Fold this protein.
Amino acid sequence: MNRNLADLAAAIPKEMRKGMPQINQQSLQLLVTGISYDSRAIGPRMIFVAISGFNENGHRYIDSAIERGACAVFGEQQIVNCSVPYFRVANSRLAMAHLAAALFADPTRKLYTVGVTGTNGKTTVAHLTAALLGKEKTELISTVTNEGTAISTITTPESPHIHETAFHALQSGKENFVLEVSSIAGVLYRTALIDFDVALFTNFSRDHLDFHKSMDAYRHAKVRLARDLKPEGRVIANIDDPVGRTFLAESPAEPLSYSIANKADLMANELLLSPHGSQFVISYQDEQVRVKTRLIGRYNVYNALAAVAVGLDYGLSLTDAGARLQDIPAVAGRFEQYQTRNGAAVIIDFAHSPDALEKTLMMIKEIYRPSRLICLFGCGGESDGGKRPMMGKIAGQLADYTIITTDNPKREDPEKIIAQIEAGMARTNGEYERITDRKRAIRRAIALAAPNNIVLLAGKGHEQSQIFKDKAVAYNDYQFLVDAALIVESPRPRGRSYE
């Protein structure tokens, strides 16, 4: 990772250059140690990229970055009297991706790189895929680490982090790189210049409309990963979702489809779903293999098919891929099951979109057949407000009792969010109450639960904090259950996807 400023500046395409400074030879030969868009993370001989963000304008922090040791600045705005070389570019985010790829010598070109996108299932599919490819050989970028802890509040990090992670993966001898790719990541060029070998699509439903503004724009952003894939790559999609068919059709790469309900390259049938796991038969070309997995529910059959599809592209046999699925546990915060002291069950799940909540509630009713299903959830602040009444209506229709509480209200009024959820709940005959404090709400839900009842704690899953207007408080649903002695404690299967 020894690149000088001249090399990195040359990596910016000519059509993006809006103003190149006059630089002396000594400055051009300066070895750059890193790249950051956060002035607080800048150290000696690092490049600062000034980004005009949604809440902050990075150009305001140029002086701060220089004080911390920035050797050059790249930005979009006209700047005069900058004390270090200032490179004006057409798009700071895209320029940052070019700089990161150049600094770390395009590491993803040397790794088998898999991008997983879709509204739901990204984390599970990414972990399953990494497990099939092998722990020792695979680097994973996910919202959940292999130990089950949250690593980021965003699904896909910025481009310098991705390229640096891939670089260190190569340095440590790894051969594969699996990462979750959000729709927002593509729009903001976080995955620009990542050399994907596989683009994989799970499913599509409403989410992130606070950012994309319309379902059409959201759909277009999801399909972007497939459109940008190199022709010699492999595009994989769930064709039981109409957007999956579009994902395949708009990619120049070789397609591989998977399905439960339709004819596809890779199919699952003879499904046996139970509270203890799933069994099904996978068909591919002229082969069939019966698979047993500890994962629960129909949607996890889809997730398993997606991972097997990557395994086949990688060169695994169908038999080998199916066998490797058998002992992979659930990812932390994804349908984790525990028992209360009076014999009820508690399920922690990350379901935080209308589709995910609906599928989770329906799956519990179908597979577990509880005598009573209690649902506890809230909705995040500063996000798609339109989904709040939708989720209230879903809970009111499918749960026997609902407790509406907080999720991550951020800078929004928690009571306002709850009221919007309540508006959807009121359209049903569902019984409910509202308790703003999540801990109190959970205590109430557990107190209401009798033997053969199930309490679903939805929305936060693996998350390790609760975000309010002026602070982030350490908090995790599972840890609270343990600390409050509300469950019969057992070792948590904390995302041991590689074991």
In short: Residues 298-314 form the longest helix (17 residues). Confidence is low (pLDDT under 50) at residues 146-151, 493-499.
